[in-house]
Amino acid sequence: MNFSLLAQFVMVLLKGSVPISFGKSTTIPAAYGELVAMGGITTAVKRLLIATLGTIFESKLSIPKTRFFLKVVDVSTATGSKL
């Protein structure tokens, strides 16, 4: 999949001022992300996104991969039309 073609439709927001309690700890860094898509998010794509984001968060922000949660929502309807 060529993610560069989709980059124009991506918004990223990092907000460090919001405390996160993940696994009963607020002292160890954690991250939560939401991805809203209009189709194309297969199980394989979802796994690739989670792995890639986990690696970026771990290497750039020192957030362990085990303390990252990604919520993925596909807003396409069952008929294939987009909302």
From TrEMBL:
Segments passing through the bilayer: none
InterPro entries on file: Macrophage_inhib_fac, Tautomerase/MIF_sf
Highest taxon of the lineage: Eukaryota
GO molecular-function term, one example from the UniProt record: phenylpyruvate tautomerase activity
GO annotations of cellular component type: extracellular space
Gene3D superfamilies registered for this protein in UniProt: Macrophage Migration Inhibitory Factor
N-terminal signal peptide: none
Family designation: Belongs to the MIF family.
The protein's name in its UniProt record: Uncharacterized protein
Organism: Malus baccata
Record lineage: Eukaryota, Viridiplantae, Streptophyta, Embryophyta, Tracheophyta
